[in-house]
Amino acid sequence: MLTESSPPPTPLLPPRLPLWEMFRLGLFQMALGIMSLLTLGVLNRIMIAELQIPAVLAAGVIAMSLVVAPARVWFGQLSDARPLGGYHRTGYVWLGSLLFVTLSYLALQSIWALDATVQGQGWGIPATLWVVILGLMFAGYGLCLSLSSTPFAALLVDITDEDDRPKLIGVVWSMLMVGIVIGAILSSRLLDTPEVCGASLATFDPGSLGRDEDIAALKLAVNRLFQIILVGVMLLVVVSTLGIEKRYSRFGKRGGQSAESQPIHLRQAVQVLSRNRQTGIFFTFLVLMTTSLFMQDAVMEPYGGEVFGMCLSETTRLNAFFGIGTLIGISGSGFWVIPRLGKANSVQWGCIGTMVFVLSFLGAGITGNPLLLQLALLGFGLASGLLTAAATSLMLDLTAAETAGTFIGAWGLAQAWARGGATLSGGLFLTLGRWLFDAPLLSYGVVFVIQAGVMLLALQLLRRVNVQEFQSQTQALLNQVLAGEIEN
Question: Rounded to an integer, what is the distance from CA 41 to the centroid of its chain?
């Protein structure tokens, strides 16, 4: 029987996460990969190439899903402090997923309504209202995606120790690319019909006869695609996380502190986050790196259509080449490259590789050969995979276990803002390129050259990131929180 002077027993940690459970967790990332393909691939291409919505406007409404990213910090801290359905992470993952699949389908219907309004009444007040509605739909989609993905990323911290994380990251983020590849294959198959990929759509003219029949066929095919895939996405989310938190989570069992008995509130967590010099450095690095990685997302499918003469199903398949390359890069990095080179060196080589292959997009366009574009995307995927795995492993090292949700929310905020900025700037620089140059190749080249330049800036900032400094400062600040020196 314990007396008042007896020390509390050391909590027993749950079992280590086995490899097969890592792959099961990866099903969630597979679902996010599929959703990314639907929004940044299919919807973006349809708005810009088929419906002829201005590129900067199309990119802008999609970027609204990432403008709301500050909510990630709150969602992360909420999952730290307030269990939902008896669990800190799983309930939020499921609720957010149900909401984002619903809103993505509503956003698609808003796109069709916008097109019908523009064709019937032109770009007047009704069309503007539909643009606003579409932007709000994507903003809601982004909020729900954050509600789901931020607690999931915090769950990865909860269920692993530092030495397990590179392997887990390699597996889970590889599955993200599997989702992109599967989504690209399914989408290209379901959209590969004579009506959708006919000459009238490949050489689109808003004033051409027969447009109504083509767009009607496109609408039918894309609606069917979304209905099938969104149901599958929700099933993947549930299967991937069912029972994981209950069996493997170490939340509240590390460091002898009970998260439930002494919660760290949002204000305290943000103070711990903001008072660490390394946090600001790494946040800025993540913004620059992620912006460069995703700037081509908003323009790659239209690039394939305008410069290489590809139709919708063919440009959708471009995502498969990128996905396969990234899959190989991530999986190889987690199990082989990062343990040998180290995380920081692996990030450095990933930055250099992405710069080289971004510029190769422009080289492929000079030849007009689709095969060279596919190979360039495969190489870009390899470099992106290495960079993603190494940077994510480094990110989790720069995360305090006691406030994992808040830190993951901050890193997610950096990445989401950057992705939003990348999507918007991709469309903006393409619009600028079209204003400067008559040739489509040169217009898209503006995007690719700027993209490589942003990665060069990120590479310079990487040299100032120091994990040891972060960890020592964060522990000192957490001790102040627990001692009451930093108030609620």
Answer: 13
